[in-house]
Design brief:
The complex is a heterotrimer of chains A (162), B (292) and C (799). With 162 residues, chain A is α+β, with helices and mostly antiparallel strands. Chain A is built from 5 helices and 5 strands, in the order E-E-H-E-E-E-H-H-H-H. Chain A folds into 2 domains: 75 residues, Beta-grasp domain (Ubiquitin-like (UB roll), Roll), CATH 3.10.20; 69 residues, DNA polymerase, domain 1. The radius of gyration of chain A is 16 Å and the shape is globular. Chain B has 3 domains: 47 residues, 2-Layer Sandwich (Uridine Diphospho-n-acetylenolpyruvylglucosamine Reductase, domain 2); 111 residues, Uridine Diphospho-n-acetylenolpyruvylglucosamine Reductase, domain 3 (2-Layer Sandwich); 108 residues, Enolase-like, domain 1. Chain B is built from 11 helices and 14 strands. By secondary structure, chain C is α+β, with helices and mostly antiparallel strands. Chain C has 3 domains: 184 residues, Aldehyde Oxidoreductase, domain 3, CATH 3.90.1170; 245 residues, Aldehyde oxidase/xanthine dehydrogenase, molybdopterin binding domain (Aldehyde Oxidoreductase, domain 4, 2-Layer Sandwich), CATH 3.30.365; 144 residues, Aldehyde oxidase/xanthine dehydrogenase, molybdopterin binding domain (Aldehyde Oxidoreductase, domain 4, 2-Layer Sandwich). In chain C, helix 9 packs parallel to helix 17. Classes of the chains: A alpha+beta (162), B alpha+beta (292), C alpha+beta (799). Chains in contact: A-B, A-C, B-C. Chains A and B meet through strand 4 and helix 3 of A and helix 2 of B.
Chain lengths: 162, 292, 799
């Protein structure tokens, strides 16, 4: 069946089966930053944002279900060549190693900060507990989210030279 | 892993949804959050012929208080409950549960009503619904019926929803200021099924004795259970550690768990006891009654 | 033309010891990494595998007719088809062979039985589900101790009656080899003469590296050129190319292995797996590229398990706590094929590091390997070939001994450490430790955690009935395999290579035979070269993973990259600097002996103002050479290390125990590591965080378990438990620096130290919390129920 998905602001016409998982549809549309790591909705590397404030594991949603929603993936985070504060902070704090969990982790953190702009360390660990990382031990990811929270709370322009 | 192929229906009205369900009977499954169903389909443990996606149905996303009840529509996500300030301040049991269902990302899609309909033996919401004495609203071709949770939950993965019916709402009594509750769950990690969990709710009389008690335990039997004898022991009594011990012991007695990687039957039974005890202590503490 | 790239801050000349941010991040943070599953070739087919539901069964019939009727399914192959190509069995790295697809019978649950090729991943999955296989179940061997019972069923009928294997005599059809080291007689005598002796049995359970990116492969045979390109999630692309050439008989120059970005490896991505072979065979047979990406279930059930060592140790000591001798017997469960990834000469890996940081005069270790109805593997999971098992064994045993002696475990360790003046230290089991200062590192850790106060707190809590424990691990690692005199895999010596090309404008491209999977080589290799050549880190590009371009090397695992390729990088750069010095002398118009390398510049001796930079030299290397000199500024260096390196560390863990549920809460964890010279402290700290988290997972969560029928009980992430941010403790890290005397920059490697060293600290802490209840040992993973059982048996109960 033919569906239209709005991904990172662009409408994409896709030919899918009803059983096509959203993650496959996104990846087949050329956006391979969203990864696949398990079959049980456990690892969260496929996390994308739906309608700005909702995170979903795109392996646990059929592509057809995403019609009519705004999907944001990691590729939609940097604007005008400028990294999103979360991307900058993951780099600054060494919040990634192999990079495989990073897109999902950043998207989950993005939604976390929408609901809680100034989270404590414990709240960050709680909020990211649907996303696995095998490399970092999470500590620098937590620091990265803290840095991003600070950057996002600073007035525009003041965040650049942290 | 790729699910088997299925026929996809996306009704735009409740009537249409119910007519699909009536037409396909048990060959059809309702797709709401899909957070249990889709993984099961990926493993091909579930291979429904027809999926009826209710996500586009209008007016099922309500979460409101009316006529003494908290009404949770079929499309209310776990996070709608988790992030709701009114629930956080007044519905202690429900708020506790909403923070430990599955994991934080899954909760953005998973629905309260869907979880109750799934009736997984380890489901969190079932235990809470038992303790809080919730009701379910079920719609069929010929109108709606309201069913007490104890009648609604029938067996492992089975409820009283009939062919051609759709659960549209869960209703929880609004707790008064002398009512509190708690949800105590142990899991091996976030996202795991509970090893054991206990939901409790206590309402006190003005004299400090217990007016009503609700205790639901989950993951320790073929389905979530009400600890009737424990509730009976508490009702009318003044809270004390000995009373809590005795009530908690009733949970251990009726728990009949399957041993698995989460623990032996003996361990899970004891955890049912420990968690009921802890839940009661916490609920009472929330009512400023210290027993330990 | 301005090219839009991710803007990261410029770094300049940044040598060793600088915490510069990683160069490779730029693509990963914007979702532009290029992992295997991101690669899509024109006309590419998808492959799915059919797996056995039984752990041991005869295959009576395979019927693919229904599968072939599914639209889009192109072909189904079984062992019979592979046999025609001579590929139904392939050699393992351990001198055994393994089936590619089940040949007549299956030997473990989920074993690959058939491969289905289709135009879409959906059709491939439907095809695999439609293949009908008839089985006749056979009795299974799950318990390795029962594998060599006289009446045990013979698992490997292909080896039946062959009483000699790749590593010596076999005493039973399910016995693979027996390996030992040290003097048994002298050790037994010393033990008999010891005033105190302890014995302990302990199991290092079967585990799995489970990187978040599963394994995968795209076979792409070009029928026109006869050239095979293989994209593969491999930590060792060059070794894989050689193996593929040997197995397929395709000349090595006609095989190109490309290892794209890898989403974590941890040893899982070293061996050759049946799925890889089937994807390649499919491409050759069908004339189209074939992609196979594991499901998580395939990953956990069929590829690369680790550990599964069942160990018995005996230690002797004097009454006042001086160790005298140790004797170890280990039974190793290798599953259905011996596919352990160890250097040829060491079937039990480097397990003989089991004397650890202590001055044992006598030691003896024996390891026996057996076949069972489980998946093959025995990979070095974030571990230098069985070092993890060895370190756990000795560090856990030192606490058992301390308990027996009623001595503080820190004091016992301090009493037995190899002393700084004893290096290079010849161990009783044959290694020469390069350097170390164990006492210093432990003292830093004790100070940092406040050991004396914690012991006081523990005594007070114990008196109140509260449970708190402190666990120490002062491990020694052995990494950097390795020197060619001892180390090879399939005969290929375990050196590693680096190629450095400096361009006229002062930028450079650097390539190595290693393949990073998150370790940060694109930054650290650039830092080494920047340090040695004075070039801007941003102008040094690092490339690994393409066998057509990179110099040969054995890959990245076993913490070997820095000790091997890192050495090659430094020595290669120094070789370039030698030539550059000649050019500099030419530019400065002085003799070569009048030029020295100071502050990353060539300076005329005694004339500080007169100097040239490497940038200027690089330009001259292409434009203005001394007469007669070969143009260009590049080299390839193969580094054969003279010895292994021996990183060490002191870890201390504090736990509190919930008396109601048995839950263990890690309150604090201090890790002081000594990995020699530190190239990038930020990256080292990141490695330590990650390794500690995997050690924590092994101590409390991760286990590949089976039931009595050989059914796999840990086949997905709901059953094989990886910790989330919420369970993971907060780590406190620190360092001492004892450089390796033989490594070109003094570095030792660090990736695995925390995984190797930490499990014993966690277990020691839990046992310490329960020691007064008579507990001496608990096997991993320490579940709540194990602790609960101990508590309830001791009459401890609580809400």
């Amino acid at each position: 069946m033919e569906i239209t998905l709005k991904i990172n602001g662009a409408e994409k016409k896709l030919n899918v089966e009803p059983r096509t998982l959203l993650v496959h549809a996104i990846r087949d549309a050329g956006l391979t930053g969203t990864h696949i790591g398990c079959d049980s909705s456990s690892c969260g590397v496929c996390t994308v944002v739906l309608d700005g404030k909702t995170a979903v594991k795109s392996c646990t949603m059929f592509a057809v279900m995403a019609e009519g929603h705004e999907i944001t993936t990691i590729e939609g985070m940097a604007q005008g060549g400028k990294l999103h504060p979360l991307q900058q902070a993951f780099h600054d704090q060494h919040g990634l190693q192999c990079g495989y969990c990073t897109p999902g982790m950043i998207m989950a953190a993005h939604v976390l900060l929408q609901h809680n702009p100034n989270p404590t360390e414990e709240e960050i660990r709680f909020g990211l507990s649907g996303n696995l990382c095998r490399c970092t031990g999470y500590q620098n990811i937590v620091k990265a989210v803290q840095q991003a929270a600070q950057m996002l709370q600073q007035p525009a322009g003041a965040a650049a030279d942290d | 892993m790729i699910p088997a192929a299925f026929e996809y229906k996306r009704p735009m009205s409740l009537e249409e949804a119910i007519s699909h369900l009536a037409e396909h009977g048990y060959d059809a499954r309702v797709l709401a959050g899909g957070q249990s169903l889709i993984p099961a389909m990926r493993y091909r443990l579930a291979q429904p012929a027809v999926l009826v996606d209710i996500n586009k149905l209008p007016n099922l996303g309500y979460l409101l208080e009316e006529n003494g009840k908290l009404r949770i529509g079929a499309l209310v996500r776990d996070t709608d409950v988790e992030f709701n300030k009114n629930i956080q301040s007044k519905y202690h049991l429900i708020s506790d549960v909403s923070m430990v269902v599955a994991d934080p990302i899954v909760r953005f899609r998973g629905t309260v009503v869907g979880s109750l309909c799934h009736n997984d033996p380890s489901g969190d919401w079932a235990a809470a619904a038992i303790a809080a004495r919730a009701e379910m609203v079920i719609q069929g071709k010929n109108g709606t019926r309201v069913e007490a949770i104890d009648q609604f939950l029938v067996d492992s993965f089975a409820t009283s929803i009939g062919e051609g019916e759709l659960a549209v709402e869960a209703r929880f009594p609004i707790p008064n200021e002398r009512t509190s509750g708690a949800y105590e769950k142990i899991e091996r990690k976030v996202g795991d099924y509970a090893t054991a969990a206990a939901a409790v709710q206590i309402e006190l009389n003005p004299d400090g004795t217990i007016k009503e008690a609700g205790i639901g335990i989950t993951a320790v039997a073929h389905m979530a259970l009400r600890v009737v004898e424990g509730e009976n022991l508490l009702r009318g009594q003044k809270p004390s550690l000995d009373l809590i011990r005795a009530a908690a012991e009733e949970a251990r007695k009726i728990a009949d768990p399957n041993p698995d990687a989460r623990g032996s039957a003996e361990y899970k039974k004891d955890m049912a006891r420990v968690l009921v005890g802890r839940g009661l202590i916490k609920a009472l503490r929330r009512l400023n009654v210290a027993v330990a | 033309m301005a090219v839009q790239t991710t803007n990261l801050e410029p770094k300049g000349i940044q040598g060793l010891g600088k915490a510069i941010k990683r160069k490779e991040d730029s693509r990963f943070i914007v979702g532009k990494g290029n992992y295997l599953d991101d690669i899509k070739l024109p006309g590419m087919l998808y492959m799915a595998l059919v797996h056995s539901p039984y752990a041991h069964a005869k295959i009576l019939n395979i019927d693919a007719s229904e599968a072939l009727k599914i639209p889009g399914v192109k072909a189904v192959i079984t062992a019979k088809d592979l046999a025609a190509a001579g590929l139904s069995w392939i050699p393992t790295l351990a001198g055994d062979k393994q089936m590619v697809l089940a040949d007549g019978k299956v030997l473990y649950q989920y074993q690959e039985v058939a491969a289905v090729y289709a135009e879409t991943r959906q059709a491939a999955a439907d095809g695999a589900a439609a293949v009908q296989v008839e089985y006749e179940p056979l009795p299974v061997v799950v318990d390795p101790y029962k594998a060599t019972a006289p009446d045990a069923p013979v698992l490997r009928e292909d080896l039946k009656g062959q009483m000699t294997g790749a590593h010596g005599p076999r005493r039973h059809d399910n016995h693979i080899w027996t390996w030992d080291v040290g003097s048994k007689d002298e050790t037994e005598k010393a033990l008999a003469a010891s005033e105190v002796r302890i014995k302990q049995h302990m199991v290092y359970p079967r585990s799995h590296p489970a990187p978040l990116e599963p394994c995968g492969c795209i076979g792409d045979m070009n029928p026109a050129t006869g050239r095979l390109t293989v994209y593969m999630t491999t930590q060792a692309p060059h070794a894989i190319r050689t193996v593929l050439s040997l197995v397929t008989k395709i000349p090595e120059n006609n095989i190109r292995v490309i290892s794209p970005d890898i989403g974590g490896g941890f040893g899982n991505k070293v061996p050759v797996y049946p799925g890889y072979v089937c994807a390649i065979v499919g491409s050759i047979v069908l004339g189209a590229p074939v992609k196979w990406v594991e499901t998580r279930t395939e990953n956990l059930t069929t590829t690369g398990f680790a550990r599964d060592f069942h160990m018995d140790i005996e230690i002797g000591a004097t009454k006042d706590g001086k160790v005298t001798a140790m004797k170890v017997y280990t039974l190793a469960d290798h599953g259905a094929f011996d596919a352990a990834a160890d250097p040829s000469k060491y079937p039990a890996g480097l397990f003989s590091i089991c004397t650890g940081s202590y001055d044992f005069q006598k030691a003896y270790a024996q390891v026996e390997a057996v076949y069972t109805n489980k998946a093959p593997g025995g990979v070095a999971y974030r571990c230098s070939f069985r070092v993890t098992e060895a370190s756990y064994l000795i560090e856990r045993s030192m606490d058992v001994l301390a308990h027996e002696l009623k001595m503080d475990p820190a004091e016992l360790r301090l009493k037995n450490f190899i002393q700084p003046q004893q290096f290079p230290y010849p161990s009783a089991l044959g290694w020469t430790y390069d350097s170390g200062d164990y006492e210093k590192t432990l003292k830093v850790a004790l100070e940092r955690i406040g050991y004396a106060e914690l012991r006081k707190e523990q005594a007070e809590k114990r008196a109140r009935g509260e449970l708190m424990g402190i666990g120490i691990s002062t491990f020694t690692e052995i990494v950097g395999a390795g020197p060619s005199k001892d180390f090879d895999i399939l005969g290929i010596k375990m050196f590693d290579g680096a190629e450095i090309r400096v361009h006229p404008s002062g930028s450079a491209i650097v390539r190595a035979g290693t393949r990073h999977q998150g370790q940060g080589h694109e930054t650290t290799w650039a830092q080494i070269v920047s340090e040695e050549l004075g070039l801007d880190v941003d102008k040094i590009i690092v490339e690994e993973g393409d066998t057509d371009t990179a110099p040969y090397g054995l890959g990245t695992y076993a913490s070997r990259s820095t000790p091997t390729a890192g050495g090659a990088m430094a020595l290669g750069a120094r070789r370039i600097r030698e030539k550059a010095k000649k050019i500099a002398a030419h530019l400065l118009e002085v003799g070569e002996n009048d030029v020295e390398w100071v502050d990353k510049k060539f300076v005329v001796k005694g004339v500080p103002g007169k100097s040239v930079t490497m940038n200027e030299v690089a330009f001259a290397a292409y434009t203005n050479l001394p007469p007669g000199m070969e143009p260009g500024l590049e080299t390839t260096y193969y580094y054969d290390p003279p010895n292994l390196t021996f990183p060490h560390g002191a870890y201390i863990c504090v736990v509190d125990i919930d008396k109601g549920t048995g839950e263990v809460k890690v309150r604090r964890f201090v890790a002081i590591d000594d990995c020699g010279t530190i190239i990038n402290p930020m990256i080292v700290e990141g490695q330590v965080h990650g390794g500690l988290t995997e050690g924590f997972a092994m101590a409390f969560m991760q286990e590949i378990a089976f039931d009595e029928q050989g059914n796999h009980l840990s086949s997905n992430f709901t059953d094989y438990l990886l910790p989330t941010a919420l369970e993971t403790p907060k780590w406190e890290t620190g360092h001492t620096v004892t450089p390796s005397p033989h490594h070109p920059i003094g570095a030792k490697g660090v990736g695995e130290s925390p995984t190797v060293g930490s499990p014993a600290a966690f277990v020691n802490a839990v046992v310490d919390a329960l020691a007064h209840l008579g507990v001496r040992h608990i096997d991993m993973p320490i579940t709540r129920e194990k602790v609960w059982r101990i508590l309830r048996q001791a009459g401890v109960d609580s809400f």
